[in-house]
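Reminder to self: tokens first, then the designed residues, so the page reads top to bottom the way the pipeline ran.
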């Protein structure tokens, strides 16, 4: 119900198309939400920005990839060779504003590196954790992500 209302408020879609999207139920309603997100982004930014955001979301949330438009942070290779505590990595990537926030995120099970839950806040993250694309994908919850690349 809310999706249809928001589609009317925040998009320029024809009403008959909105009516079709309103009929979607259960898991199908997510398709209507994707349309809403894409159309609202297109109005606020541009069609190109909306398509780029939609592709990044698809890569990150559906395909389990990293997404080309995710924020990136460079980390000196020698730091990763020595090992960086997981909580520190989340602060450096901007996914936590303080060491305490990063520690709470990890303790609560909301921190992932390359889609694997971080078990302890002092877990050392090293070059051995870098994926085949030469990066680390950090996730704080379901919606906040960043890439760390050795430099």
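Designed residues (151 positions):
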């Amino acid at each position: 119900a809310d999706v249809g209302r928001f589609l009317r408020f925040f998009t320029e879609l024809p009403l008959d198309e909105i009516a079709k999207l309103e009929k979607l139920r259960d898991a199908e309603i997510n398709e209507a939400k994707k349309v809403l997100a894409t159309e609202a982004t297109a109005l606020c930014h541009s069609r190109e920005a909306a398509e780029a955001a939609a592709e990044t979301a698809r890569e990150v949330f559906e395909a389990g990839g990293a997404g080309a438009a995710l924020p990136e942070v460079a980390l000196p290779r020698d730091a990763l060779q020595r090992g960086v505590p997981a909580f520190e990595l989340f602060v450096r990537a901007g996914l936590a504003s303080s060491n305490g926030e990063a520690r709470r995120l990890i303790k609560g099970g909301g921190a992932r590196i390359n889609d694997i839950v971080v078990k302890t806040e002092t877990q050392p993250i090293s070059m051995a954790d870098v994926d085949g694309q030469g990066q680390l994908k950090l996730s704080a919850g379901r919606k906040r992500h960043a890439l760390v690349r050795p430099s």
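The mean pLDDT is 89.
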